[in-house]
């Protein structure tokens, strides 16, 4: 495939990032896999997938340590995203959790820091902590994860809530519920959506129609599933792999040029929502 450039997404603060990044869910859980995980992330960075998403939750901080090793010596090349547990998201707890993440990542800043999902602490308190971290230079911007439309509307009503830079949610061909309201709501406000589990942890890759259409383009079903998401305005896609060859395969999805007819066939196989659905999570 041609080495087409990865499309760029612009955050509200003007920062541009590649629309195709790398996820790290389940990394850092087995020392025997660490070397392959690090090498895969490094290969992805080399290929331009310089946005790396992680969280204090993943591998109990182990994934952040893997990311730290992968970006050592090239911190300025990458855009690091991490997340705070909801039960750590008090004013003091958010700041302390961020400090621990910074230590595991081996860096002095996190480019985008997200509330992993809603918890019991008031949004205003978490946002205040995020703003303090931003002022101190420990984070570049902040956002949320697993927020539905009503959560986003509530967020915009708290002090500084309008500074939200992104919302990371479950989104793939088999989980299209956000297309009914959340995705257009965020698009109209220029708030990027980050799509996690973009191939449904591999569960959609055996779908006959996905396989049929992918073959027509000499592509893999995973590449087609990623290309589907990259077609959406303001969507950042973060597939996870621990295999450097698969990282290169993921990168090639940007070169797919799918016909309208085949997009319609995918719509028929994976229908978009006809009504509001509760936000899905993994």
TrEMBL record:
Q: What residues does the record give for site: Lowers pKa of active site Tyr?
A: 83
Q: Which Pfam families match?
A: Aldo_ket_red
Please list the residue ranges annotated as the NADP-dependent oxidoreductase domain.
20-268
List the active-site residues: 58
For this protein, the record's Gene3D superfamilies field holds: NADP-dependent oxidoreductase domain
Where substrate binds, per the record, is at 116
State any single GO MF term. Answer: oxidoreductase activity
Q: Which PANTHER family match?
A: ALDEHYDE REDUCTASE, OXIDOREDUCTASE, ALDO/KETO REDUCTASE FAMILY PROTEIN
Protein name per Swiss-Prot or TrEMBL: Aldo/keto reductase
Q: Which organism is it from?
A: Rhizobium anhuiense
């Amino acid at each position: 495939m041609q080495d087409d450039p990865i499309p760029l997404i612009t955050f509200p603060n003007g920062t541009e990032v590649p629309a195709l990044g790398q996820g790290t869910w389940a990394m850092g859980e087995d020392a025997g896999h660490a070397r392959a995980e690090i090498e895969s992330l490094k290969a992805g960075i080399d290929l331009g997938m310089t946005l790396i998403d992680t969280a204090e939750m993943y591998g109990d901080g182990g994934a952040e340590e893997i990311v730290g090793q992968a970006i050592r010596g090239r911190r300025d090349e990458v855009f690091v995203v991490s997340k705070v547990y909801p039960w750590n998201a008090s004013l003091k707890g958010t700041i302390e959790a961020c400090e621990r993440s910074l230590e595991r990542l081996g860096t002095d800043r996190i480019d985008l820091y997200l509330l992993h999902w809603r918890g019991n602490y008031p949004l205003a308190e978490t946002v205040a902590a995020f703003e303090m971290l931003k002022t101190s230079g420990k984070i570049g911007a902040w956002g949320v994860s697993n927020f539905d439309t009503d959560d986003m509307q509530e967020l915009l009503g708290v002090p500084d809530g309008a500074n939200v830079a992104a919302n990371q949610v479950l989104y793939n061909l088999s989980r299209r519920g956000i297309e009914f309201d959340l995705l257009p709501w965020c698009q109209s406000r220029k708030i990027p959506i980050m799509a996690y589990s973009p191939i449904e942890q591999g569960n959609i890759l055996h779908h006959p129609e996905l396989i049929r259409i992918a073959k027509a383009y000499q592509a893999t079903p995973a590449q087609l599933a990623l290309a589907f998401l990259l077609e959406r305005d303001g969507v950042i896609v973060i597939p996870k792999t621990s295999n450097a060859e698969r990282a290169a395969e993921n990168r090639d999805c940007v070169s797919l040029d799918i016909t309208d007819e085949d997009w319609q066939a995918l719509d028929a196989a994976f229908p978009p929502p006809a009504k509001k659905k509760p936000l899905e999570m993994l």
